[in-house]
User: Fold this.
Amino acid sequence: MGPAQLTLDLTPDPRLGRAEFMVTPANAGALDAADAVADWPSGRLLVVGPAGSGRTHLAAIWAADRGVPLLRGAGFTRPGPAPAYALDDADAVAGDAAAEEALFHLINRAEADGTPLLMTARDVPGTWRIALPDLDSRLRACPVARMDRPDDALLTMALVKLCDDRQLALDDHVLRYVVARMDRSLAAAARIVDALDRAALNRQKRVSRPMAAEVLARMTQTPCP
Assistant:
């Protein structure tokens, strides 16, 4: 048995399946790059994107497709042999000497064995402040696929899907109002739909523009005109 490792569940949350990954120009390039494993130089790829861009969702899909767990960068320890490796928030190893060493050895072993390695991070390795020079060099040589902050199309699709899941009705004009004023992240979309659903249930009313404005103002602590 290999060393202990921190993982997410092997079976992804249904909300992190491929069917739930909504493709728009903000993420299509990264998805195509992740699927094109045969084209990866040295068998590895780094997907970078801001919080809420969906990079963890993409990594979960990739790991599930290959039947492997999704590893975490925080507290990372070198895993045992596997047909593929997926490491979410790889930049979290920075400043942890043991985790940096473990990632360096994983990269070397994966390359030697011809095993694909997908990593995600908030930004490119030059911003991570890696202390181990050999690891920093290996990471900087890794090809990068970028995910942009969710665009209006992706946020709209996410809100519609989340509302459908809850059987929550949201008129088009209310939907446009919310998209124009919300934080640009998929996590924010989930929080907003939850808050709207609770407000609608408590008042036994359909979600209106004033109700949406009130919910957004309460969530941001700023007025929503």
